[in-house]
Amino acid sequence: MEIFTYPLRDRQNGPMTGVIEYVRDITERVNAEEARKLTEERLQTFLNSTQDVVFLKDEQFRFNFVNEAMCDLLGRKEDEIIGRHDADLYPRAWRKDSENADLRAMKAGQAFHCSGSTWGDRVLEGVKFPVNLGDGRTGLAGSSGM
């Protein structure tokens, strides 16, 4: 239940003569919020359980989401990655290939397969694809396995 209380005045700024209370049943909203949180927790657990790198970037190619495998690959914590670009995080030799793959996937409007990218002693193979972010914005998601 959600309760709103308002003063009842004799005139606009006159003395208070009572109280008006408005009660609203918000059970459906609370249940929907709990269901949404549970869904997010399940998805987070699922994405962090894979050894594959998973990420989501906004329309300006800033990281919005990264899983634990991505954090491990970069040797950084999630809050050190979110909001940053490839150029801020990737070795110079790898940056351009990643940025080009991002642009190709966005321009094509469909999945773009990336293979053979070398990261240290690892060889990554994955896919990047456009994602509707809402409000007319399109971002980019991707996953890579080693």
What does this structure look like?
Helix content is 38%, strand content 38%. By secondary structure, the protein is of the alpha+beta class. It folds into two domains: 1-49; 51-146, PAS domain (Beta-Lactamase). It has a five-stranded antiparallel beta sheet. The protein has a two-stranded antiparallel sheet with strand order 1-2. The longest helix has 23 residues, at 27-49. The chain is elongated and about 75 Å long.
Q: Any chance you could write out the topology, listing elements then pairs?
A:
Elements: E1 2-9, E2 16-24, H1 27-49, E3 53-57, E4 63-66, H2 68-74, H3 78-81, H4 86-89, H5 92-108, E5 112-119, E6 122-134, E7 137-145
Antiparallel strand pairs: 1-2, 3-4, 3-7, 5-6, 6-7
Question: What brief labels describe this structure?
Answer:
five-stranded antiparallel β-sheet; 7 strands; elongated; 38% strand; 5 helices; 38% helix; two-stranded antiparallel sheet; 146 residues; alpha+beta; Beta-Lactamase
Give a short overview.
By secondary structure, this protein is α+β, with helices and mostly antiparallel strands.
Count of helix runs: 5
Secondary structure: number of strands: 7
Radius of gyration, CA atoms, in whole angstroms:
24 Å
Give the C-level CATH assignment of the largest domain: Alpha Beta
Oligomer state of the chains in this structure: single chain
Helical fraction equals 25-40%
Envelope shape: elongated
Strand content: 35-45%
Rounded mean pLDDT is 90
Q: How many individual domains?
A: 2
Give the SSE order as H and E letters: EEHEEHHHHEEE
